[in-house]
Amino acid sequence: MLHNRESGALQYAMRDRLLALGFTDIEVIDEDLGRSAAGSVQRAGFERMVAEVCLGKVGAVCAREVSRFARNSRDWQQLIEMCRVVDTVLVDQETIYAPRHGNDRLLLGLKGSLNEYELDLLRQRSLSAHCAKARRGELVVAVPVGFVKAGDRYEKDPDRRVQAAVALVFDKIEELGSARQALLWFHEQNLELPVKQTNGATTWRRPNYATLHRMVENPVYGGAYAYGRMAAGTGYGAKGAGARIRRKARAEWLALKPGAHEGYVSWERFEAIRTMVSNNVPTSRHHGAPKHGDALLAGLIRCRRCGRKLTLRYSGMQHHIPRYSCTRGWMDSGEPRCIAFGGLRVDDAIEEALLSIVGPGAVAASVAAAEEAAERRDQVHEALDRDLEAARYAADRAFRQYDAADPANRLVAGELEARWNRALARAAEVESKIVAHEAASPTPTIDPSALALLGADLKAVWSAPTTDARLKKRIVRTLIQEVVADIDDEASEIVIVVHWTGGVHSEIRLPKRRRGQRNSTSADIIAAVRELALIAGDDLIAGLLNRNDLKTGHGNRWTRERVTSLRSQHHIPVFKAAEDGVEPWLNLSDAARQLQVAPKTLRLAAEVGEIEARRPLPDGPWIFARAALATDRAKSVVERARRNARHPAGPDRGQQSFFPSMT
Fold first, then answer.
1. Is 586 within 8 Å of 594 (Cβ atoms)?
2. Which pairing describes strands 624-625 and 585-586: parallel, antiparallel, or unpaired?
3. Helix or strand run (H / E) with residue 315
């Protein structure tokens, strides 16, 4: 419009042509100059012309080309119809058309259709060239933050602060396993991220979730060229019809070319991070992000009968007892409930199977973790150092601008001084952040030998209260793809089929516990109490159990009352001394006195199995049956002990003391 003015001159020359033909009252309408006649924009000049025609004030409507009136059938047919009603003619550079004549109206209709088709053809030609350039990977329209446009390709932003910030986003999302957790980490550390403004400038601000999610979903950061990811269409809402932008599936994209330029992460790593973030959406196909709950199989376990995911809820006094149930069909469609069972026993079985697989590589993993911890950089400190460098540069630049200004011009000098003060305040704020970060996070000292010991005892690390539940769930989801559960009603068992990531499937059958069985005393303690009751009372049994660090089903210490209650519940008789003094069961001292040997001799014989004996607790008494002391094996042990002169079995009553009695 500014340089190619010949077309406009030809249009204005139509006035001279009309004067030569005898027209006297001529009005030129050029309000719509530069506006499309395709009907996509409002044209005030065309609407005024149609209004004048409707009022009967116009005898002829003239244009060098009839396509100047309208490029769409709606406006064109409206103009022809109005001219037919009021008997107004249409004039172009070649012909005068009378819309009241059928032949002229037919010709005008054909010309309008041709004009509309010509515009559509030009549009299709332009779009074809546009798409062809996009398929070659040479059409760069919008550049995301972290990149600049270099001809027909992307290049990294030369600002190293921007580069480090974008790389830190992908590192944290991969480390924490969730875009939201990475966002919370940036907020906790009070770090800012770069944002591209509409004018192309890069600014820094507090990040939001959309900023991180756009980076994860944009293939440009993985070094790939992509075009056609969005589609525009008409949508209807509360405010009526309007343009709607929707995200298209990857198969519908116009172009996707990995390796087109240098990315911030490799294409394989970008796809792994994008898939991980997509799987965090809790749908029927995805597991959802790991949460803070203790249940290991949340989002992983599925019902074998209906195929739906099991719903998780927590019960108990402290709301820490998980329970899996298939209630989605009942809630959505009123279908009968499928299965339900407690989650503690199932989680314990999955944990045991998982640790048996991970255990052999735990020591090597601990060594690798020690090396990584030694080489790990303080990412927060480095980011704050880059912020400080940028703040000091901004302060120095503001000072140079203030120093170059005329001091007498206070209108300029005052504003530059205020900018300098703001830049200095920003630099001081970043310095205070660095000091606070150094004071809050001292350099940790990690002992490699301690890590090796923890790797050897992986069970203790896994069960430690300080171990994050989300970290354990991420380990589970790394090794297990899905778990399918069912209940065998005949056998009263929970059937668990584990689909491992490598393609192996394993089945685990667990007895379905009764209500309250989880907090019951273990069978080993009950068996120990049953044997200790042969030689000891309830007070002594409670002391022995506490000495071996054994707890009740609720985690309490043992008392005489609790031992008595346990015996009564399991029908264990109380210890009573024999009336005739002949006890059927003896402890180590009484048994040694019965055989007239030293207690150590009898204990060594019991340890190697020469004499039948029981020891229900590792740090507890030995129990001997009186009948076992009268066997031939017991007599041979006694004879061998008495023949050993260097190690007598016991004191000889006929032997005199070397030291006389002083009493």
1. yes
2. antiparallel
3. strand 311-315
Strands (E) located in 611-653: 624-625
pLDDT digits (tens, 9 = 90+) for 139-181: 888 899 999 998 888 999 999 999 999 999 999 998 888 899 8
Query: Angle at the Cα of 252 (from 246 to 253), degrees rounded to 5?
Result: 85
Contacts of 142 (CB under 8 A, 6+ apart): none
Per-residue pLDDT reduced to its tens digit, 304-313: 888 888 888 8
DSSP conformational letter for 168: H
| DSSP letter (8 states) at residue 32 | T
- Which residues lie below 8 Å from residue 568, measured CB to CB, with a gap of 6+? none
Polymer length in residues for the chain: 663
DSSP letters of 513-577?
PPTT-TTSPPHHHHHHHHHHTTT--HHHHHHHHHHTT---TTSPPP-HHHHHHHHHHTTPPPP--
pLDDT tens-digit series, residues 487-516 = 988 888 899 999 998 888 989 998 886 655
* Helical (H) or strand (E) element with 450: helix 448-456
Residue 258 φ/ψ, nearest 5 degrees: -65, 150
CA dist 306 to 3, 310, 541, Å? Answer: 72, 10, 51
Tokens (6 digits) for 653:
């009553």
Tokens of 379: 């990412």
- pLDDT for 471 equals 82
Cβ-count burial of 496 within 10 angstroms (0-12 exposed, 13-18 middle, 19+ buried)? buried
Query: Are the CB atoms for 282 and 288 separated by under 8 Å?
Result: yes
Q: Are 53 and 86 in contact (CB under 8 A)?
A: yes
Give the span between the Cα atoms of 475 and 25, in whole angstroms. Answer: 87
Q: Quick one: CA torsion of 472, 473, 474, 478, rounded to 10 degrees?
A: 100
Cα torsion through 550, 556, 557, 562, rounded to 10: -100
Angle between helices 362-375 and 448-456 (to 10 degrees): 150
Q: Is the dihedral of CA 455, 460, 462, 467 positive or negative?
A: negative
Is 560 in a helix, a strand, or coil? helix
User: If you ran DSSP here, which 8-state letter would residue 359 be given?
Assistant: G
Residue 197 and residue 203 in contact, taking contact as beta carbons nearer than 8 Å: yes
* Distance, CA of 395 to CA of 421 (rounded, Å): 8
Give the predicted TM-score (pTM) of the model: 0.63
H or E, element range at 8: helix 6-12
